[in-house]
Amino acid sequence: MPxxxxxxxxxxxxxxxxxMLREVGMAGTGIKDxxxxxxxxIGSLYHYFPDGKTQLVSESLRIHAEKSRRLLEHFFDGRQTxxxxxxxxxxxxxxxxxxxxxxKGCAVxxxxxxxxxxxxxxxxxxxxxxxxxxxxxxxxLPFSSERARHASAVTVVAALEGAFVLAKAAKSGDPFRDVxxxxxxxxxxxxxx
Length: 193
Known about the structure:
It is a single chain. The chain has 9 helices and no strands. The protein is mainly alpha-helical and 193 residues long. The chain has one domain (8-189): Tetracycline Repressor, domain 2 (Orthogonal Bundle), CATH 1.10.357. Helix 1 packs across helix 2, helix 1 packs across helix 6 and helix 6 packs across helix 7 (120-137). The longest helix has 25 residues, at 146-170.
């Protein structure tokens, strides 16, 4: 959206919040920092997000979740085996992580780690996002029972989120590659079970 249009400040605020969530989680994402990064006037934040930080984080999470869901649909589109899809997903994540400077995680995972007991709305967004991602993956997995496909899809999601944590600590995409290789081997060896 061109600068100066009505929605541009809102979009810039959402983009800045999403990036900050990926970098420093919810606890490290301050309103003033989001405003500074976005270049939008502070009044825009309260105009577009009258409920403040929680609303901004919620909307940013939904955007990030949707982008990630579409990416998973791309990898698990049925054109390749589940093992190949898993391998490609994790290798692509490793490369993207390193290209981005080896410090950005998943916004949903970062927020989930920062949740406090009172954060029920944000907790629901995180929970439903992880469930949606598993639902995208499960039908493409080579296991005969629905339960095994679901459990394996949850494992892929958990492994992806865990790889972000390990990769940030190592400042390397290698944890993605290692996890992807292991999961792909498991998918290949357990076909049809």
